[in-house]
Predict the structure.
Amino acid sequence: MSRPSVLAFPAPLRKLRAQLAPLVLPGKDRRSGPASMFDSAGALGQTVEVPESEQGALALHAHLASSPEVSAMLVIDPAGVWAHGMMQTLSDATGSPVDRLRVHSRGGLQIRAVVDETLLPAGNGPHRLVRCLHGDAKPVDRRAIFGALLSHSQICSVLIGPMPSHEAVSLIDEMHRLAQLPFAAGVRWQFYLSPEHRGLEDLVEARDWPVRPRLLHARPLTRSVTNVWNQLYEAWVGS
């Protein structure tokens, strides 16, 4: 397998997006939100490859810290039920493309983590950046990237969708462990529970969190990404 090309990391989010004019979506007269930070064409966003190395880690942290005035939410969806559709729905609604960051192993043979992100227009408040961490890598292989993301996030939303109970419990344990670490000291947590995992409320609340997590619930028999996003967003802006 050939090693993926490593693109030059983008200019700071704040400076680059300020230089780009809003886009006009094909077939529509209205102007959309900011263009992609990775692709000046801004049509679909672009994938940026970052190696799992000291240089890659520095570039990643520089990017994550490049726009301090933006409030960021990190979304975790291990079951892969809602996050992909939610990110695409947000992009379609705002006209801001979904950009993708892939962190690969030093030899380029394994994908350690995949991060999608999209910027919500400021409107009457601050710009808000939504990032989604996903991928098939084991949690232990994603801890480095997870730590970097948490250190530059104000809130972490953990979506506990359909999965075996023991995996859901392990996920909560891992999130609790990370919440105790210094880089996550300022992070607020919220857990979105699917109907089959409502019994995990007591498990979450029994843990000693730096800040008490917020518990949200999926409606029975629905996988509407709009409903998921509305609950996450209301909890975000209301916290």
